[in-house]
Design goal:
Blueprint: H1 2-19, E1 22-23, E2 48-55, E3 66-72, E4 82-88, H2 102-110, E5 114-118, H3 130-144, H4 146-149, E6 151-161, H5 163-173, E7 191-197, H6 212-216, H7 224-229, E8 243-248, H8 256-268, E9 273-278, H9 283-289, H10 291-314
Parallel strand pairs: 4-5, 4-6, 6-7, 7-8, 8-9
Antiparallel strand pairs: 1-9, 2-3, 3-5
Helix pairs in contact: 3-5
Length: 315
């Protein structure tokens, strides 16, 4: 019994020590508890339901693409439509699976968010801008199905890690038609807030990357403008939504300076932004063990989605 208690105590202390290795200070004045709005009394019911393998692109799209929709099982009577998170996995734009984001999607669904966890086309078979256009069609699907699933199109958020973070940040910042995005009519829902982990925000910093070259289909020195156009940092404007960035300081795949420089550029432009840095984690470890960063990211979304809900209720 003593050994078991000691082991549990050591585990808790280790977790506290790892959490304390992070540097983060919210820039907003306080953090509202979204749970006070979504105060679920689940009993024996599930926290959420999952509709799997939804085909979200048309039959004539170059590749069939699917997504999983997570829906909160219960919601207060006063709240008709739920906020949404578009979830995008990483993998160097060339691999991995949306299943990588399942645990984060479940965590968000338990907070009262609908989550659309998508697959997208991979490089090098499909080079940029194929991936960002896939994300646009995911937004279009949400827009076309909002009434059926009671989704709040005024509270559409985005979350991604690594290359997925790059894609959601670019989606949120680039104006329709810019960065080779589709200019659709009617306009797509605007992204309210973004959580981006391990983000490569400025692709122009990679001159000979074996990951970026297959994604863009050309070396940087042969088309520097393309590298800039495909970078979220290029498209920062007054319309860029609030961004929560998290990154491991020991990241050797996507250097921490990518998030730091992006954060500084966002703040300089007057865009609300948060930066969470963990001094012990690298790229993979930040994804696997960055629970505290994820919780802070959810808190960030809660803050801005609560504000949006409060504003809409008064208008």
């Amino acid at each position: 019994m003593y050994a078991k208690t000691l082991s549990m105590l050591c585990a808790v202390m280790s977790l506290m020590a790892l959490t304390s290795c992070a540097s983060y200070q919210p820039n907003y004045s306080h953090s509202l508890d979204f749970g006070s709005v979504y105060n679920f009394d689940n009993g024996n019911a599930a926290d959420f339901t999952i509709i799997k393998d939804i085909e979200y692109v048309s039959a004539d799209w170059p590749q069939a693409l699917a997504a999983d929709l997570y829906l909160p099982e219960h919601r207060p009577a006063a709240v008709q439509d739920v906020p949404v998170v578009l979830m995008v996995h990483g993998g160097g734009w060339s691999g991995r699976s949306r299943a990588d984001m399942n645990s984060t999607a479940k965590k968000l669904a338990k907070q009262g968010y609908a989550v659309f966890n998508i697959s997208y086309r991979f490089a090098p078979e499909f080079i940029y801008p194929a991936q960002i256009q896939d994300l646009q069609l995911a937004l279009l699907w949400l827009q076309n199905n909002a009434i059926q699933y009671q989704l709040d199109l005024n509270r559409v958020n985005a979350w991604g890690y690594s290359s997925g973070a790059h894609l959601v940040a670019l989606l949120a910042s680039a104006k329709p038609g810019a960065a080779q995005t589709l200019d659709l009519s009617p306009p797509l829902p605007k992204i309210l807030a973004v959580v981006a982990g391990g983000i490569p925000a400025d692709l122009s910093q990679y001159s000979h990357s074996p990951i970026v070259i297959p994604f863009l289909g050309v070396k940087r020195d042969d088309n520097l403008q393309l590298y800039k156009d495909a970078s979220p940092i290029t498209h920062i404007s007054a319309d860029t939504p609030p961004m929560f960035l998290y990154h491991g300081k020991l990241d050797r795949l996507v250097e921490k300076e990518q998030s730091i420089n992006y954060y500084n550029a966002l703040r300089k432009a007057g865009v609300p932004a948060e930066l969470y840095l963990h001094r012990l984690w690298g790229h993979l470890a930040m994804f696997l063990f960055g629970w505290d960063a994820e919780n802070k990211g959810i808190d960030f979304l809660n803050h801005y989605n609560y504000q949006a809900l409060d504003h809409s209720s008064k208008s």
